[in-house]
Design brief:
Number of strands of chain B: 0
Distance between the termini of chain A: 37 Å
Helix content of chain A: 25-40%
CATH superfamily of the largest domain in chain A: P-loop containing nucleotide triphosphate hydrolases
Helix content of chain B: over 70%
Distance between the termini of chain B: 30 Å
Number of domains of chain B: 1
Low-confidence stretches of chain B: none
Number of domains of chain A: 2
CATH architecture of the largest domain in chain A: 3-Layer(aba) Sandwich
Mean pLDDT of chain B: 90
Strand content of chain A: 25-35%
Shape of chain A: elongated
CATH topology of the largest domain in chain A: Rossmann fold
Shape of chain B: elongated
Oligomer: heterodimer
Order of helices and strands of chain A: EEEHEEHEHHHEHEHEEHEHEEHEH
Strand order of the largest sheet of chain A: 6-7-8-3-9-10
CATH class of the largest domain in chain A: Alpha Beta
Chain lengths: 319, 265
């Protein structure tokens, strides 16, 4: 497998603070890596090192096959960066920003204008193209910022908390764009504090806390690795709840949790085969269920298990 | 989406200038959108002109009118020097913005943002010279030579300003906050512009000050400006001023670039 991004043993100190404490990362070409971690975990520092904006004190990193220190200019030629704070000029209009970037990338004036118009249309910003960025809403800014990152058709795209502070609608738009880019073969490194975002988008997740990688894997692997499964049953008739509880207790030797509000019973299990046993037992006693599932723990539970603290409080927009 | 072109490994000086010009375009768009950013290069020259001409003219030169003639070329040089202070301040503010991260993550010359800021300041220089010249003309100033020499004078002054900018950029990259830039630079620009023959002849000054005034590039440029606008010799002084400008740029361009790299990592 070829890797668009590889890093090993990245260490970065700011005074006495250890922002990166030996971080390893690997993103296969054409995949999305979600770098998940709370505020101050070192996510942004890692992105800045990989974007050649910061030099690591120790370790090495290669992007698109180029060393971020020795071949920094070549790395800059293959990456696109969308920062945590909009990396576009507030005073300039959408068109002016994108044309400037096109020109800096060596496009002729006409080509830069055409590319700007194309991207602004793609991100539904054509109507606002001639307005200053400072008049844009948060979602529009993010889209303009993303458009700016794509002027040079990058092979590797860094998205540093691309949806922080966005409303659900804008967030979904950003997600859609990211998926479309990956379909075109772009490799994406995405940092996020939102487990849901990582779960939705990422092929691979790396969890960082206090500058260290504490887990890496597919969302599915992480969920499996860090917590048992749970068996959830919702009997069609509420009167059957005690009977179902009895069966579950019998099968697992554990007292099931009953959610009285929606009539769901759940119990932790370690043997997935119990599901079919349960189905048979329910059949035998003639109880039907509206919902019957074996669930992996949510990423929130994974995060809690891995970091020892709960995931950051979701802002209203993502709750 | 693989790039067919070979990777860019080095950005040469030609490309650096091209990138710089594109970024100068950005600076000019910003000035157009915030015209009030030109207040320091419009209001101050008018105040200086009115104040010095009517306050000192009679005492120094017998009449305001006569003083205006000798003062204007020097005042143009002084205001160019003051206008160059803005570069460091603007850059100091600019590098903290997110957009600078984007520039730095692009395959452009490291020096391009600095070159762009300095080239964009040509607008400020032209503005300050135009304001001075128009107000002085209303007050009675008249060019005694020809348009060709007038343009040489303007070109020399702008070239001087472009070189002086690098001092401002250097200081702008060293100090923490933009507000500290003019404070620091005043200690440099005041002796440079007032310690010259812009306002008075050096003949009454103590010897040590005369020695400084005589080598001061502002003095040479002022003499050249007087020759070019009022008639008389100018070539020797222009050459000295030009050499000075080149020397200043040769020292402060690398210093500014180094300070910038250190500042932004």
């Amino acid at each position: 497998m070829s890797y668009a991004i590889e890093a090993e043993g990245l260490v970065k100190r700011f005074g006495s603070t250890l922002a990166l404490d030996g971080v390893d990362l690997a993103v296969p070409t054409g995949k999305i890596l979600g770098v998940l971690g709370p505020n101050g975990a070192g996510k942004t520092t890692a992105v800045r090192v990989l974007a050649t904006l910061l030099r690591a004190d120790e370790g090495w990193a290669r992007v698109g096959g180029y060393d971020v220190v020795k071949d920094a200019t070549a790395v800059r030629g293959v990456i696109g960066l969308t920062g945590q704070y909009a990396s576009i000029d507030e005073d300039l209009s959408g068109t002016e920003n994108l044309v400037l970037i096109g020109k800096l990338l060596g496009l002729s004036k006409a080509a830069a204008k055409a590319r700007a118009a194309e991207l602004l249309a793609k991100f539904e910003l054509s109507d606002a193209a001639s307005r200053s960025i400072k008049t844009y809403s948060g979602g529009m800014r993010r889209r303009a910022d993303l458009a700016a990152s794509l002027v040079g058709r990058p092979d590797v795209l860094y998205l540093d908390e691309p949806t922080t502070g966005l409303d659900p609608h804008s967030r979904n738009e950003v997600w859609g764009t990211v998926r479309a880019l990956v379909d075109d073969g772009v490799t994406v490194l995405l940092t996020t504090q939102y487990l849901e975002e990582a779960d939705q988008l990422a092929d691979l997740i790396t969890v960082i806390d206090h500058g260290k990688v504490i887990a890496t894997g597919t969302p599915h692997e992480l969920k499996r690795r860090t917590g048992g499964q749970s068996l959830q049953v919702r009997p069609t008739l509420a009167v059957d709840v005690p009977a179902v509880a009895g069966i579950l207790r019998d099968l697992t030797d554990t007292e099931p949790l009953v959610d009285a509000d929606n009539g769901v019973l759940s119990v932790p299990v370690d043997n997935p085969l119990l599901l079919s046993t349960l189905v048979r037992r329910l059949d035998e006693v003639g109880i039907t269920a509206d919902e019957l599932a074996l669930r992996l723990p949510s990423l929130d539970e994974v995060f809690l298990t891995l970091t020892g603290h709960t995931a950051p409080v979701h802002e209203g927009s993502l709750a | 989406m693989t790039t067919a072109t070979p990777p860019l490994t080095h950005v040469g000086p030609g490309l650096a200038v091209r990138h710089g010009l594109a970024l100068a375009g950005r600076a000019i768009i910003k000035i157009r959108k915030n015209p009030e950013s030109l207040l320091d290069v419009t209001l101050q020259p008018i105040i200086f002109l009115l104040l010095f001409v009517y306050l000192f003219g009679g005492a120094l030169q017998g009449s305001s009118d006569a003083y205006l003639q000798v003062l204007l070329p020097g005042l143009m040089v002084q205001n160019i020097a003051f206008a160059s202070l803005g570069t460091g301040m603007a850059l100091n503010t600019d590098i903290t913005k997110g957009v600078f991260d984007r520039f730095r993550s692009m395959p452009i010359a490291r020096s391009a943002p600095l070159i762009g800021a300095v080239l964009g300041d040509v607008v400020r220089f032209v503005t300050t010279l135009t304001v001075l010249f128009v107000v002085a003309t209303i007050m009675g100033f008249r060019v005694q030579t020809d348009p060709g020499r007038f343009l040489i004078a303007i070109a020399l002054m702008i070239a001087f300003g472009l070189c002086l900018c690098w001092v401002s950029v250097f200081v702008g990259m060293l100090v923490k906050s933009p507000q500290a830039v003019p404070g620091t630079l005043v200690a440099f620009v005041f002796p440079l512009t007032f310690g010259s023959n812009v306002f008075v002849s050096s003949s009454t000054m103590p010897g040590w000050l005369q020695a400084w005034v005589d080598i001061n590039p502002v003095t040479h440029l002022t003499n050249a400006g007087r020759g070019l606008l009022l008639g008389g010799d100018w070539v020797g002084d222009a050459a000295w001023a030009f050499l000075w400008a080149i020397a200043i740029a040769a020292v402060f361009f690398p210093l500014a670039l180094r300070a910038y790299r250190r500042r932004v990592g």
